[in-house]
Design a protein that fits this description.
single chain, alpha/beta, four-stranded parallel β-sheet, 4 strands, about 15% strand, globular
């Protein structure tokens, strides 16, 4: 099983598997009727305070990842729907709206899941 991470604005691909939006807010300019989003787990997004503090500043990336992981650790029940999808689906794609493809909550979430919930079960790309 692999966790993929893609920008929600990119054209969906057949190999995406189950597509899960993990942003708190719906992406600007993207119509829900035409978005290829299977699930929207907004509660998995970082808190508003953490998101604003981070501001997609690469210098804050490692600290953001640690703080986001701590938020997830304090609310393990919000992970259950996604973990269930990961158990049932051969491929899951986490979707995000940010312009920065390397420093965003979906990338951080994929690393968190692989480190703490899916060790040895695949990799994200």
């Amino acid at each position: 099983m692999k966790i993929h991470v893609r920008r929600v604005y990119d054209k969906p691909e057949a190999g995406d598997g189950v597509r899960v939006l993990v942003d708190r807010l719906w992406p600007r300019g993207l119509r829900k009727e035409t978005a290829a989003v299977d699930h929207w787990f907004r509660e998995l997004a970082p808190s508003t305070e953490l998101r604003r503090w981070f501001g997609h500043d690469p210098d804050r990336w490692e600290q953001f990842r640690r703080r986001y992981a701590a938020e997830l650790d304090h609310r393990p029940e919000i992970l259950e729907p996604l973990l269930e999808l990961l158990r049932k689906s051969p491929r899951v794609t986490l979707l995000y709206a940010a312009k920065d493809e390397e420093h965003n909550n979906a990338v951080a979430l994929a690393h968190y899941l692989e480190e703490r919930h899916l060790p040895g079960k695949g990799s994200h790309d």
